[in-house]
Amino acid sequence: DPTASMQWALYWCNIVQCFWVMVTNWPENILFENLSKASNTMSDLELLLHRWKTGKIYWKALDDEEFVRLNQEQLEKIDQGEVSDPRRHTRSDKGKKRKRVADLGPAQDTGCCRKVYRSATPVPDEDNEDGQAEEDSNGR
User: What pLDDT score does 17 carry?
Assistant: First the structure.
């Protein structure tokens, strides 16, 4: 998939399980995580780039048996606490009915989703005692 991008934090869920591919022959001396955190030396990064370009590190397509085996290993690592489960926590208001912004009255509208346009407050004409508008100094 040409639109796919590397997602270090969710590698297993969004890369391996979704596309059934896996990075193969990653160097053992460099942690397999976001490169901003894994390595701070230019030589490590150059080594990785060289290995990608020469094909020593590559994406390997997984077959059915291999995927099932690796998925089982991943689940065991999660159960043992070696790997954290990257799923989001359940919302605190799960199961409660939430109102839409459109359903809220104007007094409760937070204003975050819709911009309310209001016209300027009209200025009343100043009438003199005879009920006629006063003329300004230019005779209007």
Answer: 87
